[in-house]
Amino acid sequence: MRATRMFQAVDSHTEGMPTRVITGGMGVIPGATMNERRLHFIAHLDHIRKLLVNEPRGHSAMSGAILQPPTRPDADFGVLYIEVSGCLPMCGHGTIGVATVLVETGMVEVVEPRTTIRLDTPAGLVVANVAVKDGRAEHVTLENVPSYCDRLDSTIVVPALDREITYSLAFGGNFYAMVDLDEIDIRFDRAHKQEILTAGLAIMDAINTQAPPKHPTIDGVDHCHHVEFIAPGSDATLSRHAMAIHPGWFDRSPCGTGTSARMAELHARGELPLHQDFVNESFIGSRFTGRLIGETDVGGRHAVLPTITGRAWITGFGQYVLDPTDPYPHGFEF
Ligand code: PYC
């Protein structure tokens, strides 16, 4: 066999959503911080993301995380998140997958009943507390980056839908537009997933064209690629949603950064106090439990500190290679 690249990977899924954890083959990405590494990777190394997540090695909803040495002394590992959408600043389901893989493969010193792993992510330090029993990661609670509500009940004209939509927008590691499904008159039913997705992409496009968000302190976080459609009957205790993501897929997991953004929004509405459980359910019915454990400030904005609890399972171990004669060195989208 000939290979110009070879990557070692541990594949996992977090509440239904894949995370391909790249444990070897990448080398150290240049950059003094994980966000600098993310921006360098986007500019110079994006073909590696495409190789690892696109078909035929991945699929149209594939996601992964590349392990790196940390760039800060208080972290155990650096993490670069790779998805079909690009390189996210932070990914909740991906972090739960990474923490599970690190524990279950013995890449960290495992302490029962709780192993704490400190992860250097492009969005900041994320602490993963892993509940471990007999070597198995039973569930992971991550302490996410500060999250804040950017706008509440704003309106935007969505030309492709030929209507005005009311939405809220919050940051939970990525920017999320939150829209009541009733706004687009579509039932919360996977039979309608294509219509929901089409509406989501149209809303993202309108927001990014007319009123793009910008994170006050993290460079290069300046667009909204996620629309969280809230199902009727949802409240600050239990919320169900369909998470439409650029360029055209749904999160299978309840979306950790989306759950954090939703909690920031509910907190800004005065509906979700600190220290109260919030259960967020995905389009496939899997759940994360979130909680707000504190308040802080992000670039002059009031922010909250979320935790997210969920489970992940290892699904396989792989070596992904690139043969020099492969006609699709970047894979392809279909
Ligand atoms: O869990 O944060 C998350 C996430 C982001 C995109 C897909 N999942």
Quick overview of this protein structure:
The protein has 334 residues and is α+β, with helices and mostly antiparallel strands.
Structure description:
The chain is of the alpha+beta class and 334 residues long. The protein is 19% helix and 40% strand. It contains five helices and 17 strands. It has a 17-stranded mixed sheet that branches. A hairpin with a 5-residue loop joins strand 14 and strand 15 (287-298). 48% of the residues are buried. The model has no long low-confidence stretch (mean pLDDT 98). The protein binds pyrrole-2-carboxylate (PYC). The site of pyrrole-2-carboxylate (PYC) has 11 residues, from helix 3 and helix 5.
Which structural class is indicated by helix and strand composition? alpha+beta
| SSE pattern, N- to C-terminal | EEHHEEHEEEEEEHEEEHEEEE
Strand content: 35-45%
User: Shape, please?
Assistant: globular
Q: Main beta sheet: strand number and arrangement?
A: 17 strands, mixed
Helix content: 10-25%
Name the ligand types: pyrrole-2-carboxylate
Low-confidence stretches: none
Number of strands: 17
- Average pLDDT: 98
Radius of gyration: 19 Å
The number of distinct helices, counting runs of at least 4 residues, comes to 5
User: How far apart are the first and last residues' alpha carbons, in Å?
Assistant: 27 Å
Oligomeric description of these chains: single chain
Helix-strand layout with pairing:
Blueprint: E1 5-14, E2 17-24, H1 34-44, H2 46-53, E3 63-68, E4 77-83, H3 92-104, E5 114-121, E6 124-133, E7 136-143, E8 148-158, E9 163-171, E10 175-180, H4 193-210, E11 226-230, E12 238-245, E13 249-250, H5 256-268, E14 278-281, E15 287-298, E16 301-310, E17 312-322
Parallel strand pairs: 2-3, 4-5, 10-11, 12-14
Antiparallel strand pairs: 1-2, 1-17, 3-4, 5-6, 6-7, 7-16, 8-9, 9-10, 11-12, 12-13, 14-15, 15-16
The structure holds pyrrole-2-carboxylate (PYC).
